[in-house]
Amino acid sequence: MACARCLAFILSIISFVSYGADLAPRSEYEGKQLAGVRFDPVVQPVADSDLKRLLTLSPGTPLRLDEIREAIKRLYGTGRYSTVEADTEQTPAGLTLIFRTTDQWFVGPVETHGKISLPPNAGQLTNASQLDLGTPFTDADVQTAVDGLQSLLRRNGLYRATVTPNVQRDPQHQEVAITFQVNSGKRARLTLPNVTGDTRLPPDELARKAKYKQILFFPWKQATQDNLNIGLENIRKFYTKKDRLTADVTLTRTDYLASENRVKPIINADGGPVVKLKTEGAKVSKGTLQKYVPVFDEGTVNRDLLVAGDRNLRDYFQNKGYFDVQVDFNSENSGRDLENITYTVSLGDRHRVLSVDVKGNKYFNTDQIRERMFLQPKGFLILRHGRYSKSFADRDEDAIEALYRDNGFHDCKVTTEVVDDYKGKKGDVAITMQISEGGQYKVAALQVNGMTIASKDAILAKLNSLVGQPYSETSVAMDRDYILQSYQSIGYPSVAFDYKATPGPGPLQMSLVYNVVEGRPQYVRDLLFSGMHTTRKRLIDPVITLKAGDPLSWTEMGRMQRRLYNLGAFDKVDMAIQNANGDTEEKYVDFHVTEGHLYSMAIGVGAEIAKIGASATSSANPTGNTGFAPRFDLQLGRLNLWGLGHSVTFKGRYSTLDRRVSLTYLAPRFHNVEGRNISVDALYDNLRDVLTFTARRLQGGVQVSQRWSKATHFLFRYQWTDNKVNNVFISPLLIPLYSAASQVGLFGVNVVQDRRDDPSDAHRGIYNSLDIGLAKTQFGGSVNFLRFLGRNSYYKTLGRTQMVLASNTEFGVIRPFQTGGLSTITYVPLPERFFAGGEDTIRAFPMNQAGPRDLTTGFPLGGDAIFFHSTELRFPFIGENIQGVIFHDMGNVFTSIGAISFRYHQNGLSDFDYLVHAPGFGIRYKTPLGPLRVDIAYALNPPTFNGLKGTYNQLLFGGATPTIQNSGHLQFFFSIGQAF
Is the distance from CB of 271 to CB of 244 less than 8 angstroms? Predict the structure, then answer.
C-alpha cells in the first residue's frame, strides 16, 4: 500500500509538471503571484485545521513549483488521499492553484455470516480475510480476502463452500463495511493417506497409524485441519514407540477427489535411524529420560540437545542429593539404521543440604533474598535431600546480583560456598551465599528536557530516579515507561524518550539527563461503533468515556475496551485508530464488537461417594448408608435479552440426594451503576440429602448486589420460601411439631471479601463472608427468627516450599423470637435449621450428621447454632499433579448458642453439644475443573446415641429394634474441589 501511494505521488508530480508544460512554459507561472488555492472536490476528508497546518501556500505570495511538490507530499502524508493532482487556472483575480483529490478508503467492520459448518467458526473466517480494522483499503483487497476465506475452508474439507462478499461504503468516514456470506456446503471426508519418502517402516502400516478411519464400522473422519494434524502426530508417536526419535513427518499436500467429495492426504515421512538412548552407572526410567533429554521433544538428535540432556540429568541427580555427580554422553552410529546414545553417570556420594545461609547482606534482609533463591535445605516431606546443583547456584547468584544492581549496587558480587561433611558428618552439606554488596550508586542530578505539558510537575514527582535515589538502568527504564505512558494517555502518541548517564561530581554518583520529544498532540475526531445487531446503544453509552475533541488517549481507549467486555454481551471487542500513521491531528476511533451467542447450554455429570441418607422404602439407618449418588445437571441460558445485557438462566439437577429446578433473571448494571446487579429467581427443590426428612421447597426472591471494591461485594435480598416436610424419621410424637408446613419471608444482607489468588485452589489470601437474615411474619412468613452466619478462610504459602497452610472457621446462630409460646427448640422449621457434616463442613461426620438427634430414633434434627474450624497443610505429594493434605476438623451443630461448648467428651447418650475432632489425610489430583479430592477422616470422639433399626413403617408403627449406635470413627469422602 505504501509503495502504491509513493508511485501515485510520483505520477501526480509528473502529471503536474507535464500539464503545466503543455499549457505554458514554466516561466509564465513560476514566481507569479498566487491569487488563491481551492480543492476539487470542495469538501475534503482532512480537517480544516490540518489543511491550514499542511499548506504553506497563501494568496499574495509567489508560486513556486518546489512548494507545490512539498504541499502534495504533505497531503499524501495525511494518509487520507489515494491520489493528489495539482493544476493552475488563470482567473481575473490572478493565478489560482487547484488540488484535485481522491479519497482513500479504510477498513471498517468486517463480518462473516451464513450457513457455516464448524470448524472454522465465523471469527476464524473473519481473521482469514486479513482485513484489519482502520487500515487502508483498495478494491483488490476484497478478492484477496475471499481467497483467504476459501483457503481456510478448503483446509477444513469444505471444498464446496461459496463465499460472496458485500461491500458497503460510508463516504462521510471513508470506511467500507465488508460482509462475507458463506455457505459451507458438505464437508469432505478423509481417505487412507499416501505415505512417501524414506519411511524405514512399511508405508501401509504408517497410513493406518494415522487413524483417519474411525473404529470398526464408523465412517472416515472429516477432513478438518485438526484431524489432519492429529493423524500426523499419530504417525510421529508410532515412530517414537519404535525408537525412531528423529523421524520427520510432514503433510506434502491434499488431493481433493471432487466426484467422491473425499480428501487424500499425501504425507512425506523420513523415518531416520533407530535411536537407542540408555544410561550406565545409574538407573534412569524411560519416562525420566524423555523428560530431561530434549531429543524426544525436538524430534532430532544433535550435539546441543545432547549437551542440554547432560546438564538436565546432572541437575536431576543433584536434586536427589548426588551433588558430585558426573554425567557424560557418547553417541555412535552402528550402521545406517542405528544410533546408540549412552549417558554415563557417576553418582558419587549422596549428600543432604542441612542449611542454606545468607551472609554479607546489609541493605536487604535475609527473607527478601531467600524469596529469589532456588537452593533449599532438606525438608521433612518434600526435598528430603534439599535442592542444590551448580546451575541452581549460578542462577541464584545472578538473581541476587540483579536485585542489588536494580537498587544501585553495580559492583555487587555473590559467591556460593559449599562446606562438605558439615559438622563432621559424612554427606552433610552446608551452603552459604556470600554477598559483597559494594557501594550504592545514587542520582546526583536529574535534568529533564523537552517537557512542556501542564502535568509536567506531577509526572516528575513520581519518577524513580530522583536526586538522592539509587541509580540503576531498571529505574531509568521504569521512568521511560511511565513518561511515555503519561504522554500517550493525554494524546501524544509519537512521544519519544532517550537518556544519558554520566559520572556525578562525587564518588558513587551519577548524573542523568532525560530528553523528551513530545511530538504533536492528537485528538478524537469521532467514535465509530459497529457490530451491534441485537445490543442497544443505551447499554454501551455509560462506558463510552471518550468524545469528539478529547485527547487521543490509548489508556482511555483500553479502559473502554475492558468495560465493553465486562458488559457480558460481546465475545470480542476490536479497537483501532483509523489511519493511525497518517499525519493528522484528529483521528477516528473504531470499535467493532462481535456479539456473543444468544443461547447457551451446559450439561454436567458428577457423583458423590460417602455415607448418604436412606429412603422410606429402604433400611432406615440413622448413621447413613455408604453409597454412590450420581448427579446430572442441565443449564440453559438466554443472553442479552432486549439488547440490554440481561439474561435468563434455567438450571436443573437430578440426583438421589437433590432434585432441583431454578429460573433466574439477571439485570446487570442496575441503574447504569458499575458493579450493581439485580436478579430475580424462582426455585423448586426436593431435598433428600438430610437423613431425618425429605422436603419440598418453593422459593422466590429478588437480590441486589453491589461491588464495593475489587475484593468486596454486598448483596441485599428478599426471599420467600414455602417448606413442606415429609418422611420424617423421628419419634412419632414429634412428627406433628417438625413436619408442619411453614412459610419464611426473609430480608438478608451478605458481605463477601475475597482476596484469594485462585478461588478454586487458593495458595494465599483470605476469604471472609458475613450473612445476616431477618425472617418475620410481616414479611409474608409464618415464623420469626434472626439468622447469622460468618466465615473466615486464610491461606498462606510457607516460604518457598510449595506447602500451603489453610484454615477455615464458620460460626452461625439462629435466634427465634415472638414464638407465640412455642418451644424455641422446635420453632424453627427443619429445612431452615443448621445441618452440617460431610466433605465441605465437618469431616468427622457423614453428610449432615452433626448435631442434636432424635432421642428415640437417633436421626439428626439440626440445630440453632453451628461452630467448626478446619486446618489443612497442603503439600506436593507425587509428581506435579498430585497433592497431599493433612487436616484436622473440629466442630459441631448445637442446640442453641447458649449450648455451645468446647468440651471434648460426650456427657451421656442425649448430649450432643460438644466438639467432635477428626484428623485425616487427603489426596488432591489437579484437573481443569479443579482438584479431584479424596479425604479419609478419623473421628476421635464421635457421638453415641439411642437409635432404632428398621424400615420407615416400623419406625412409625413400632417393630423397629432399639439399639445404641455410633456415627462412626472412619469417614470417607470423594468429590471435586478443595474442602474450602
Answer: yes
Output the pLDDT for position 926: 87
* CATH code, residues 2-103: 3.10.20.310
Class of domain 280-346: alpha beta
Contact 317, 351 (CB under 8 A): no
Q: How confident is the model at residue 371 (pLDDT cuts 50, 70, 90)?
A: confident
Query: What one-character DSSP code corresponds to residue 777?
Result: G
Across the range 954-959, mean pLDDT stands at 68
Rounded CA-CA distance 925/900 in Å is: 36
Residue 36: helix, strand or coil by DSSP? strand
Q: How confident is the model at residue 16 (pLDDT cuts 50, 70, 90)?
A: very low
Q: Which of 366, 383, 380, 385 is CA-nearest to residue 432?
A: 366
CB 900 within 8 A of CB 936: no
- Distance separating alpha carbons of residues 963 and 969, to the nearest angstrom: 18
Kindly report each contact of residues 43-51 with a partner whose C-beta sits within 8 Å and lies 24 or more positions away, as own/partner: 44/101, 45/80, 45/81, 45/103, 45/104, 45/174, 46/75, 46/78, 46/80, 46/584, 47/525, 47/584, 47/585, 47/586, 49/585, 49/586, 50/78, 50/584, 50/585, 50/586
pLDDT band for position 74 (cuts 50, 70, 90)? very high
Tell the CATH superfamily of the 105-183 domain. Answer: membrane protein fhac (3.10.20.310)
442-517: CATH topology is: Ubiquitin-like (UB roll) (3.10.20)
Q: What percentage of the chain exceeds 90 in pLDDT?
A: 60
What is the C-alpha separation between 589 and 146, in angstroms, rounded? Answer: 26
Q: Can you name the residues that pair with 889 across neighbouring β-strands? A: 870, 918
pLDDT at residue 808, rounded to an integer: 97
Q: How many C-beta atoms lie closer than 10 Å to residue 220's C-beta?
A: 16
Work out the end-to-end distance of the chain between its first and last CA atoms, rounded to an integer number of angstroms: 58
User: What does the pLDDT read at residue 778?
Assistant: 93
Phi/psi of residue 691, nearest 5 degrees: -60, -35
d(CA 118, CA 152): 12
Q: How many CA atoms lie less than 13 Å away from 604 in the CB half-sphere?
A: 14
Would you call the peptide bond into 119 cis, given omega within 30 degrees of 0 as the criterion? yes
The CA distance from 120 to 129, in Å, is 13
Grid cell of 142 as nine digits: 476484497
Taking Cα atoms as reference points, which of 849, 416, 782, 380 lies closest to residue 612? 849
What average pLDDT does this structure show over 232-252?
A: 92
- Contacts with 332 (C-beta within 8 Å, 6 or more apart), sequence order: 339, 340
> Is the Cβ–Cβ distance between 672 and 630 less than 8 Å?
no
Domain 189-270: give its CATH architecture.
Roll (3.10)
- Checking if the pLDDT of 5 tops 50, the result is no
At residue 10, the pLDDT reads: 40
pLDDT bin (cut points 50, 70, 90) of residue 19 is very low
860 pairs with which residues across the strands?
Answer: 853
Grid coordinates representing 512?
A: 542523568
pLDDT band with cut points at 50, 70 and 90 for residue 622: low
Q: In the chain, which segments carry CATH 3.10.20.310?
A: 2-103, 105-183, 189-270, 280-346, 352-436, 442-517
User: Whole-number mean pLDDT of the chain?
Assistant: 88
Report the range of poorest mean pLDDT among 298-302, 632-636, 650-654: 298-302
- Which top CATH class is 523-588? alpha beta
Distance CA 774, CA 830 (A): 17
Split at pLDDT 50, 70, 90, the class of 523 is: very high
Provide the 10 A C-beta neighbour count for residue 364.
18
Q: Which CATH class is domain 689-976?
A: mainly beta
Residues in the chain: 980
Tell me the CATH architecture of domain 352-436: Roll (3.10)
pLDDT digits (tens, 9 = 90+) for 536-574: 998 999 899 999 999 999 899 999 999 999 888 999 999
pLDDT at 609 over 80: no
